[in-house]
Amino acid sequence: xxxxxxxxxAERLIRYVQVDTQSDPFSDSFPSTEKQKVLLSLLADxxxxxGWKEVELDANGYVMxxxxxxTDKKVPVICFCAHADTAPDCSGTNVKPILHKNxxxxxIVLPDxxxxxxxxEAYPYLKxxxxxxxxxxSGTTLLGADDKAxxxxxxxxxxxxxKNPLHPHGEIRLLFTPDEEVGRGTDKLDLKKxxxxxAYTLDGGEKGTLEDESFNADGMTFIFHGIxxxxxxxxDILVNALKIAAKFLASLPxxxxxxxxxxxxxxxxxxxxMSGTAEKAVVDFIIRDxxxxxxxxxxxxxxxxxxxAASSFPGSRMEWVVREQYRNxxxxxxxxxxxxxxxxxxxxxxxxxxxxxxxxxxxxGSRLSAMGLPCANLFTGMQAIHSLHEWVGVSDMEAGxxxxxxxxxxxxENCKVxxx
Length: 420
Prior knowledge:
By secondary structure, this protein is α+β, with helices and mostly antiparallel strands.
C-alpha cells in the first residue's frame, strides 16, 4: 500500500537534501560556506511563491518571512526556526535520498555501500515505522534530515496555511539559519529585525520529543610552546610542543569524562582538533554539562592536567582560553512556562505522548534563549544524525506539521481579544 503524505514533507525533504549545505568549522567567513545560500535562496523563493510578502534572504544567509495574524486576539509573535546547514562529520555532497515505501522491518542495505545496513536491532525506533515510509541516503553521505526535516516541516506548514487561511493563528515569523552545526547559527542574527516574542526550533528527534533543557557549552583551547632547535644538535635544548600536547591528551581518563563514556545528565570534555609543530601545538576542546558550576569544574580540571603535562617539560610554556558557546535554555524557559505547557497541550491534541528529556547538545534555541528570545525544541523524526545511516520517518514529519497547527491554535485560544 502506498503511503500518502498530505502535507508534502517527504517531497520537500527529498528536494532539499540534494542541495549540499555542509558547514565548515575552520572557515572564518559567514556563512562558513557560500553553498548554504543556494538552499536558503530556494527557500526564500518558495515562500514568495506561496504568496507570503515579507520574505528576505539577508547578506548573512538568514531567511526570514512573516505569516500575518488572522485573529482579533493579541497573540505573541511566534517564531518557528530550523537550520539549513548539515554537519561536517560526514559528507553532504551528492546526497541521493531514497524513499523506502511501506517499510517491512527487514534490514535495509544502502545501495552505494553494501556494508552500510540499517536494522531494527541497531535502530529500535525503526520498529515503529514498519508499514510506513522512511527516507535514507544511499550509503556514502549523510541524509541531511538534521535539520532539513525541520525545514521541510516548517515549509509544509507555510504552504498549508497559504491554502487554508481560516486556521486561527497570530503572527508567525519563519527563520532559517546557516552554520548551526558549527555553533554559529545565531552569531549575525538581528533579533530586532526578527521581532518575535517566543520561538520553537524544529531540530529534535523521535516523534513526541519536547526539549526545554540543553547542555551548557564552552570551547577551550590549549596552546603549548616548546623550544625549537635543530634536531641534530637538540640534546638538552629541544622541547617538542607536540609531545607536550600528546602527554596532555594521554592523561585524560579512558573510562569517564568523555562522550564515549557518559550519558543522561553526565557532562564531558572532548578534544576536537589538534594541530601544530615542534615549536607550538594547539589542542581544541568542547566542554559540556547541564550545570554551569560543573562546566567550570571541568575546565579547572582540564587546565590542571595541561599544566601538569607542560611542567614535565622544563622550559615549556602553556596558555589557555575559554570561549562561551551556549547556555542551558532551561534557565530562560523556566521564566516562560507557557511556551512548554502550550506545546504539551498541542502534543496531547495530536495524540502524541510527550517525551521530555534534556538535549545532550545544543540547538539554535539555546543561543536564542540566551539572547533573550525564549525557545524550546520540537521533534522532526530525524535519526542516526551525522552518520551514513541517517534516516527519518515520513509519518513523523507529517505529524510535525499537524502538531504545529495545533500549537498555533492553542496559543490563539489562550489569548484575549484586543479591545480598543
